[in-house]
Design brief:
alpha/beta; four-stranded antiparallel sheet; four-stranded mixed sheet; 29 strands; globular
C-alpha cells in the first residue's frame, strides 16, 4: 500500500503532540460541523479561575469532557465543547493587590476605577495561562467561542438575571450570618472555605444560675465568642437539664442574664450537653437565635478585632482576647477544665486565614421558590445524575436550602446594579446605568459598592455563554446542553445553581445529564494541597511522558463519582502501553510489503483470524456501551486489554510466521488485512482517550485519509461475532497457558523445546488440538504434540495438568537436570516453611492480634495462605520428579 510509511523506532510525544494539535486547529475540527441535519452534542467547560494553573483535577475533568466530545464527533454529531474562564473575584483581586503591595501601593491609593484598570491589565497579560495549558492536554474545545464571566455578553446576562429576580422580589437586602474573611475583608461562599483538622482545646466553663448555687457547664472551642452569648441551649429530652429550662444563667465576666432554652439541635452526648448560643458568630447559633427570638450581639469588627460589645476586651485581636479572657475565667473560678480536642477549622481558601462567621448586611436570593422546580426536574427524571446516588445528595440539599448570600465586599467583579438616589433615597435596580432618578429626576446617584458572588455569574454559564438573553443561533442549536461533567465537591455550589437558574430564566433545564467524577487523591488517599506538599504538576508529567500518557493514566480505573488515587507507577504503565501500541504499529507497517485491501473470505480465514475479528467487534460494542453510560474508566480498560492481550500478545505473535517471505501469498495477504483492519479499529476506539499517538499512527496507516479525529466511529459487523470461534480459541489459549505454567514451575529454559503428550477428552477436542497444533508449538515452545486417543499411565518424571479439553503431560527427562531441580525445589520448600512459621507465629500471638489494625491482620492471613499454597505446589512437583 503506497500510502503506508514507516514509524520512527521510538515514540517521542514532544515531536508529535504540538504538531497534530496545531493541525486540528488549522483545519477547524474543533468547531461544530456545518451539517444542520446532524444531531447536536454540546458541553460547557466548568470555567477554571483566570488565576489558576493546571492541576490534576482540571486534567481529569477536561479529559473526561474531551473523551465524550471526540467520541460524539466521530459518531457524526454536531459537537460544541465551549471553553471559558471565571473572573475569580477574591483570588484575582488578591493577585493584583499583591503586585501593588510590591510597589508600596494599595487599591485605595489608586481608587476603584484605576484599580480595575490594573486588574484588567493583569487579566489580559496572564488570564490565558490555564487555557494554554488545557491545549497541551489535547482539549478539542472550540477556542473561537471562548467565554469569560465578565465579557460583554456574560455581563449583560448577569444584569438581566439580577434585575428580573429583584423585580420579582426574589433578591433582597438583609442582615444574615455569613462566612467572613478578616484578611480579604469580604464575605465568602461555603466552597471558598476549606476545612482542616487541627489539634485544639475544648474549654469547659461554668455558667451560674440566677439566684442559685447551681450552675451549668458549657463546652466551647472558641471561648472569646461567649462575650456575645444570648442564651444556653439544652436538648428537650435531656433529664439533667429539664428542670432548668426557662430559667436564666448569669454570663461570666459580662455579668448579663441570658435564658436557658430547649432545642433539638443540641447533641446531649457532646461536651456537657449544654451549648452556649452566640447568634452573631455561629451559623447554627444564628438559626437557633431566630427560632427562639434571641438577641444578636456582635462582638468583633470585620478585621476580627473586638468591639465595644466585648467590654474591657475592646480593641484586642480575637486570639489575644481569648488568651486574656481564659486567664480572667480561671482567676474567677469559672474555668472548670481544658481538654485536648481535634476539630475542623474553616479557613479562607485564598489566604488561609481562619474565617469568622459574622452577621452582616448583604444581598440575598430567596431560594425556596427557585429550588422547588429545580428539585422537581431531577425527581421526575428530566435531569439525570450519573452515578444515580448523587440524586439523593442533590435532593437533600435542595430540600434544606437556605437563602443565598450573593454580595461580596470587593471591587473586582460584577458590580451590583443598584443605585441610591441621594435626594429622595429612591432605590433603583436597572439593566442599564441610570442617568437620573426616575422619582425625583436627580442625577446625584450612587451605585452599591458591593459586587456579586462569582458563583452568581457561573450559575448562568450554560446559557450566558451561548448568547442569552438574545435568541442567538448558538443558543437555539446547543441549549439545553447535553451533559455537564464536574467534580462531586460542587454539586450544590454550582450544579444546583445552574439548574434553578436555567429553569427560572430560560424555562428549560441547562443539561440533560450530570456526570459526577471524584477527586484525585495522592497515593495515601489524601487530598492534594500546598500545605501537605503532595501535589503533582500535570505539566511535569506531560513534559516527561506526554499528554496521552497523562490522560490515559488518569482515566484508567476511574469509576463515576468515586475518588481515585494518583500513582506514578500508573503513569509508567501507561507509557509502557503507548510504547506497546507504537511497536505493534511498527510491526504491522514493516510487514506490509505486497499489501492490498481484499474482501476477507471466511474460507481463507484461520481460527485465529476469526477470533481476533470477533473480539474486535465485541470490543466495539463494549466500549461504545461504556461511553454511553459515562463509564470512561471501564472503556479505557477494555481497549487496553484488547490491544495489549488479544492483539499484541496473541494475534501478532501468531501471525509472524505467516508474514515471512516464504509464506503462502494468500495466507500472508489475509494476515496483513486482518492486522491492518483490527489496528485501525483499536486506533479509532482509543482516539478519544489518546488523541495524539492514535493520529500519528493512523496517518501512517491510512495516509490517504484526512484525520482520525473526523473519521467514523467503528460500526458493528454482527456476522463477524462468533461465540464458537472464541470458545475454540480460548481452549487453545488455555492449553498454551498451562504449558507455559509447567515450563515456569519446573524452571525449563526459554529456548528448550518440549514434547507434549495430550490425552483429549473426546474426538472434538482431538480435532481441535490437531488442527491448531501450530499455534501451541509457536506460543509454548513445543517440539511435538503426541495425541493419545485413550487413557494412558502417567509418564514418570513429567509435569502434568488436567484441563476440560485434555490431560497434558510434559516429560522432563533430558529437558532439565532432575537432581538440580529437586535441590532448587527443596530450598524453596524450606523458605516457604519459614514464611509459614513466621506468619502463623504472628497470628497465634494474642498481643499482636489484639493491637494490630484489622488490615494488617488481614494482610498477614493472606500472606500465610499464599505461603501454604506455594508449599503445596512445591511438594506436588517434588513428588512428580521422584517417580
Amino acid at each position: 500500500m503506497s500510502s503506508q510509511q514507516p514509524l520512527s523506532s521510538v515514540y517521542e510525544p514532544d515531536k508529535v503532540e504540538n504538531k497534530w494539535y496545531e493541525y486540528w486547529k488549522e483545519k477547524g475540527y474543533f468547531k461544530p460541523r456545518e451539517d444542520s441535519q446532524a444531531k447536536t452534542f454540546s458541553i460547557v467547560m466548568p470555567p477554571p479561575n483566570v488565576t489558576g494553573s493546571l492541576h490534576l483535577g482540571h486534567a481529569l475533568d477536561n479529559t473526561l469532557q474531551d473523551i465524550l466530545t471526540r467520541w460524539r464527533r466521530m459518531q457524526g454529531y454536531r459537537c460544541l465543547w465551549l471553553p471559558g474562564t471565571d473572573h475569580a473575584g477574591i483570588a484575582t483581586q488578591a493577585k493584583v493587590e499583591e503586585s501593588l503591595a510590591a510597589e508600596g501601593l494599595s487599591k485605595h491609593d489608586l481608587g476603584r476605577e484605576k484599580f480595575l484598570e490594573r486588574v484588567w491589565e493583569w487579566k489580559n497579560n496572564y488570564g490565558d495561562k490555564i487555557i494554554n495549558q488545557l491545549s497541551l492536554m489535547g482539549s478539542s474545545c472550540d477556542w473561537s467561542r471562548t467565554r469569560f464571566t465578565m465579557d460583554a455578553d456574560c455581563s449583560s446576562a448577569v444584569r438581566e438575571v439580577f434585575v428580573n429576580l429583584y423585580n420579582k422580589g426574589l433578591i433582597y437586602q438583609g442582615d444574615y450570618i455569613i462566612n467572613w474573611c478578616p484578611r480579604c475583608d469580604t464575605a465568602i461562599s461555603d466552597i471558598e472555605v476549606q476545612h482542616e483538622d487541627r489539634s485544639g482545646h475544648l474549654f469547659h466553663i461554668k455558667y451560674p444560675l440566677e439566684n442559685s448555687a447551681e450552675y451549668l457547664v458549657v463546652a466551647t472551642t472558641r471561648p472569646e465568642t461567649m462575650l456575645g452569648d444570648s442564651g444556653v441551649a439544652v436538648h428537650p429530652d435531656d433529664e439533667r437539664y429539664r428542670s432548668m429550662i426557662g430559667k436564666q444563667v448569669r454570663l461570666p465576666i459580662m455579668d448579663r442574664l441570658i435564658p436557658i432554652f430547649a432545642d433539638d439541635y443540641v447533641e446531649s452526648d457532646f461536651g456537657s450537653g449544654a451549648v452556649k448560643v452566640t447568634p452573631s458568630h455561629d451559623p447554627n447559633d444564628f438559626e437557633m437565635g431566630l427560632r427562639h427570638n434571641l438577641e444578636q450581639i456582635s462582638i468583633m469588627d470585620n478585621h476580627a478585632i473586638m468591639n465595644e460589645n466585648a467590654g474591657k476586651y475592646k480593641g484586642l485581636d480575637r486570639y489575644e482576647c481569648r488568651k486574656q479572657l481564659l486567664a480572667d475565667l480561671e482567676e474567677k473560678g469559672f474555668l472548670i477544665k481544658v481538654e485536648d480536642h481535634q476539630h475542623a477549622i474553616g479557613q479562607c481558601q485564598r489566604c488561609e486565614t481562619i474565617i469568622e462567621p459574622l452577621i452582616s448586611k448583604q444581598w440575598f436570593v430567596s431560594m425556596k421558590p427557585l429550588a422547588e422546580p429545580a428539585l422537581r426536574s431531577v425527581v421526575n427524571g428530566d435531569i439525570r445524575f450519573v452515578p444515580e446516588r448523587f440524586t439523593k445528595i442533590y435532593c437533600n440539599w435542595m430540600e434544606g436550602i437556605r437563602d443565598w448570600c450573593i454580595s461580596r465586599q470587593l471591587w473586582w467583579g460584577h458590580r451590583i446594579p443598584v443605585w441610591y438616589c441621594q435626594e429622595c433615597e429612591k432605590v433603583i435596580c436597572a439593566k442599564v446605568d441610570p442617568e437620573q432618578c426616575p422619582q425625583c429626576g436627580s442625577i446625584n446617584l450612587v451605585q452599591d459598592e458591593d459586587v456579586l458572588d462569582t458563583w452568581f455569574s457561573s450559575a448562568l454559564w450554560p446559557f450566558s455563554t451561548l448568547g442569552w438573553p438574545q435568541e442567538t443561533e448558538d443558543f437555539s442549536n446547543f441549549y439545553p446542553t447535553s451533559v455537564l461533567v464536574t467534580g462531586r465537591d460542587i454539586i450544590f455550589f454550582w450544579v444546583a445553581r445552574m439548574i434553578f437558574s436555567g429553569l427560572e430564566h430560560t424555562g428549560k433545564i441547562p443539561f440533560f445529564d450530570v456526570n459526577i467524577h471524584g477527586l484525585i487523591l495522592d497515593g495515601q488517599g489524601r487530598k492534594m494541597s500546598k500545605s501537605l506538599g503532595n501535589g503533582v504538576d500535570p505539566l511535569d508529567i506531560i513534559a516527561k511522558y506526554g499528554a496521552d500518557t497523562l490522560r490515559f493514566s488518569l482515566i484508567t480505573g476511574v469509576t463515576p463519582g468515586n475518588d481515585v488515587r494518583f500513582h506514578l507507577e500508573k503513569v509508567e504503565n501507561t507509557r509502557n502501553f503507548a510504547n506497546k501500541l507504537w511497536n505493534a504499529a511498527r510491526f504491522v507497517l514493516m510487514n506490509m510489503e505486497g499489501f492490498k485491501e481484499i474482501v476477507l473470505d471466511q474460507d481463507h480465514l484461520q481460527l485465529v483470524d476469526k477470533w481476533i475479528l470477533s473480539r474486535a467487534e465485541k470490543c466495539k460494542i463494549e466500549v461504545t456501551k461504556c461511553l454511553e453510560n459515562y463509564e470512561m474508566g471501564e472503556a479505557a480498560q477494555i481497549i487496553y486489554d484488547f490491544c495489549w492481550d488479544d492483539y499484541c500478545d496473541w494475534y501478532i505473535e501468531l501471525t509472524k510466521s505467516r508474514l515471512a517471505k516464504n509464506a503462502a501469498a494468500t495466507d500472508k495477504l489475509v494476515a496483513q488485512n486482518v492486522l491492518n483492519r483490527v489496528l485501525e479499529v483499536i486506533l479509532k476506539l482509543l482516539h478519544p482517550f489518546m488523541p495524539f499517538i492514535t493520529e500519528e499512527i493512523y496517518q501512517k496507516l491510512s495516509a490517504a485519509k484526512e484525520s482520525i479525529m473526523i473519521s467514523a466511529w467503528p460500526t458493528i459487523i454482527e456476522e463477524l461475532i462468533s461465540e464458537d470461534v472464541e470458545m475454540q480459541m480460548n481452549h487453545i489459549m488455555t492449553i498454551i497457558r498451562a504449558l507455559r505454567n509447567i515450563r515456569g514451575e519446573f524452571n525449563i529454559a526459554p529456548n528448550a523445546k518440549i514434547e507434549v503428550i495430550a490425552v483429549p477428552s473426546d474426538n472434538q477436542a482431538l480435532k481441535l488440538i490437531e488442527d491448531n497444533a501450530k499455534y501451541i508449538k509457536v506460543m509454548a515452545g513445543v517440539e511435538s504434540i503426541n495425541c493419545e486417543t485413550s487413557s494412558i499411565d502417567p509418564p514418570k518424571q513429567a509435569g502434568s495438568v488436567q484441563l476440560s479439553q485434555a490431560v497434558l503431560y510434559v516429560p522432563l527427562e533430558g529437558i532439565i537436570d532432575i537432581a538440580q531441580e529437586m535441590e532448587r525445589l527443596n530450598k524453596n520448600l524450606v523458605k516457604s516453611q519459614k514464611e509459614i512459621d513466621q506468619s502463623d507465629g504472628k497470628l497465634k500471638n494474642e498481643k499482636f492480634v489484639a493491637q494490630a489494625p484489622p488490615e494488617i491482620i488481614a494482610k498477614e492471613k493472606a500472606k500465610l495462605e499464599e505461603a501454604q499454597k506455594k508449599k503445596e505446589g512445591i511438594l506436588l512437583r517434588l513428588q512428580l520428579l521422584k517417580n
